[in-house]
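Structure (tokenized):
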């Protein structure tokens, strides 16, 4: 797919389609916006009404144009439109599954690991993903990071020399203006002990027009800058998204993808393989394959842990190691990330260990003391 205007948006002038502010201002937010363009099923209509207060709906025309017409189970649609599953509650679900609020040491600054912090700078995203783990605050203007709290967060980071790595997140930091983003990144870069800056953004997926030459100039001035994005499905892998990734890579950003394994969206090894091959072609390394968290209202998206193991097992041998992400569970209660790997050992006799490889072959390896 090219990612250009088509379907209900085929009359939109290309220059308008390319304007990220136009895309932001024309986001589909209310049922009528969807009825008039991509339509709504009965179930979606009911889920829309029931979820409005809990988690907003917002979809850029670009992302909505990736919906597969006539497919109520389209994987793009499922990520963007409310579903009945969100209304089903389970006793094990958690409002803040990673305990980020309890680990908040200053406004917006969550410190869970010895040398790195998460810095929440906005509640806004072009598309509110139905599987978002921060549903408790993302999309809620009440959680918006005001300028004085961002300033306080930066001051805290400046005062803690153990912090070497800052992940600027939200919400989506690219929802901020170039000027605001340049100021935040510049302030952080000026702190001697901050060695690594990272941005978590889904804009290359949901609003690739946001990656403008002006933005890229801002990012080019920050070193080193890692950009983590979030492609989940081949329909998101458009020519327009590829251009955004290549602009970021040309600006010297180190790109990584954090995919979330979602039932009915990408819980199929070939789907993940297709996305990962495309990502490598565009200089974005598959970094994590996340098990969906135990967040409220997303259990219908979750897959068994065994599915994630099957996916990485399938990838091994079919794509270079660069394309095999870590399959990760972010433990509830702030336990942090652990990596799960398939078991390749078949048997062991003395120093002889029989392993299987990713495509089923068996090979004997002689270990040493
Ligand atoms: S872009 Fe990220 S922060 Fe925003 S809704 Fe999606 S998953 Fe949540």
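Design, position by position:
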């Amino acid at each position: 797919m090219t990612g250009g205007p088509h379907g209900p948006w085929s009359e939109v002038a290309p220059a308008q389609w390319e304007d990220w502010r136009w895309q932001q201002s024309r986001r589909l937010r209310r049922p009528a916006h969807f009825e008039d363009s991509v339509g709504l099923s009965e179930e979606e209509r009911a889920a829309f009404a029931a979820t409005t207060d809990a988690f907003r709906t917002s979809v850029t025309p670009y992302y909505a144009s990736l919906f597969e017409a006539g497919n109520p189970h389209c994987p793009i649609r499922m990520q963007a439109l409310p579903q009945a599953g969100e209304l089903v509650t389970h006793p094990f679900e958690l409002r803040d599954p990673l305990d980020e609020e309890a680990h908040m040491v200053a406004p917006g600054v969550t410190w869970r690991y010895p040398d790195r912090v998460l810095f929440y700078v906005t509640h806004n995203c072009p598309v509110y993903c139905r599987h978002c783990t921060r549903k408790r605050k993302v999309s809620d203007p009440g959680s918006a990071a005001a300028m004085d709290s961002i300033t306080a967060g930066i001051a805290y980071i400046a005062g803690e020399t153990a912090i070497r790595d800052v992940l600027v997140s939200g919400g989506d930091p690219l929802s901020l203006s170039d000027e605001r983003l340049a100021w935040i990144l510049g302030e952080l870069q000026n702190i001697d002990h901050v060695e690594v800056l990272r941005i978590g953004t889904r804009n290359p997926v949901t609003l690739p027009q946001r990656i403008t030459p002006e933005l890229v100039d801002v990012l080019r001035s920050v070193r080193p800058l890692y950009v983590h994005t979030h492609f989940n499905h081949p329909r998101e892998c458009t020519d327009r998204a590829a251009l955004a990734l290549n602009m970021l890579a040309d600006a010297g950003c180190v790109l990584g993808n954090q995919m979330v394994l979602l039932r009915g969206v990408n819980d199929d090894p070939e789907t993940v393989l297709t996305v990962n091959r495309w990502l490598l072609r565009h200089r974005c390394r598959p970094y994590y394959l996340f098990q969906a968290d135990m967040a409220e209202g997303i259990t219908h998206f979750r897959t068994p842990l065994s599915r994630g193991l099957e996916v990485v097992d399938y990838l091994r041998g079919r794509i270079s190691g660069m394309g095999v992400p870590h399959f990760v569970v972010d433990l509830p209660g702030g336990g942090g990330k652990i990596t799960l790997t398939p078991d390749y050992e078949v048997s062991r006799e003395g120093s002889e260990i029989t392993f299987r490889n990713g495509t089923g072959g068996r090979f004997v390896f002689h270990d040493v003391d």
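Reviewer-requested clarification: The longest helix spans residues 147-159. The mean pLDDT is 95.
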